[in-house]
Amino acid sequence: MHLKDSFNRSINYVRIGVTDRCNLRCFYCMPKEGIPYEPSAQLLSYEEITRLLHVLGNLGFNKVRFTGGEPFLRRDFMTLLEQTHALNQYSDIRITTNGTLMIKHIPKLKEMGITKLNLSLDSLDEKRFKEITRRDDFSKVMNTFDTLLKEGFDLKINAVVMHGVNTDDILPLVNLAEKNPVSVRFIEEMPFNGGYKKNETIFTASDIYNTILDTYPSFEKKSGKHGDTATNYSIKDFKGDVGIIPAFSRTFCNTCNRLRITAKGEIKSCLYDSGVFNIRDFMRSGVTDKQLKEKFFEIVKLKPENGFVAEDNAKKSSSKESMSVIGG
Known about the structure:
It catalyses: GTP + AH2 + S-adenosyl-L-methionine = (8S)-3',8-cyclo-7,8-dihydroguanosine 5'-triphosphate + 5'-deoxyadenosine + L-methionine + A + H(+). The protein contains eleven helices and 14 strands. The protein has helices at residues 46-57, 77-87, 106-112, 126-133, 138-150, 170-179, 205-215, 279-284, 289-300, 307-313, 323-326, and strands spanning 3-4, 10-11, 13-17, 63-67, 92-97, 116-120, 154-161, 183-188, 220-221, 231-234, 241-245, 258-261, 266-268, 277-278. The strands form two sheets. It has a twelve-stranded mixed sheet with strand order 9-10-11-8-7-6-5-4-3-12-13-14. Helix 1 packs across helix 9. The protein is globular, with a radius of gyration of 19 Å. 42% of the residues are buried.
């Protein structure tokens, strides 16, 4: 069984933010001074998250991604991964991380078969990395990168491309895929940070594509599958590949297959909406699993046709949300 939205899209993928906290301060994600963090009692507990995953698993969900903030900042995050693994309902368990805190957990992740990771890395220049993240953790991230590759993890690099900031990093990051079996994915910058200005120039997916094509004429589109946010490309003789995610242009909405749940239980049926329902409060009111299941049927039907519709319907304040609150 798969849930279907009003546009006949199968919804089988949930992204769950386990914390709004992060140890980096990437300027496109949150302000320099950080954000007011939610008290721990306001966050979904691991028991609540596991219950949600069990209900969703019975509705045909088979893919989950844990995000943050930085998920490894939350105490005993590995316990949640163990509980999720023990459900035996998710064939695809993934994590998005900045790579600064997870290296000691790599053996356990490998043991559980949780080997699909997205590593955020916006620059291979140590100075520029520090300018973007406002932290001096480049060596930690690269050590994690090297270790994950050595241990055979299925690794994707997420790089947010910012006009006038790190466009010079596009080709060096592409080169990571030449000798390494990684997927390097370039993401259009989104308007989810306190410093965003309406007239800011966006380095678009087309700009990224043309930058790479100018250097690599063999840059060739690969076939995709339902739910892909990235358009993936191969380059002759490269071990890895390259993807471009039009997160601002929003050209992938017609195959969207996901729901997002923030750390405090707010369900977002689209990255660009302002939240459609708080599932934490609903669960804490004492509802049964059957009532939870029925609620998800309702929520999925609220998914908008695309991100532009969602943005039009959203509250005006939503564009000021931090990506660490939204959960990526």
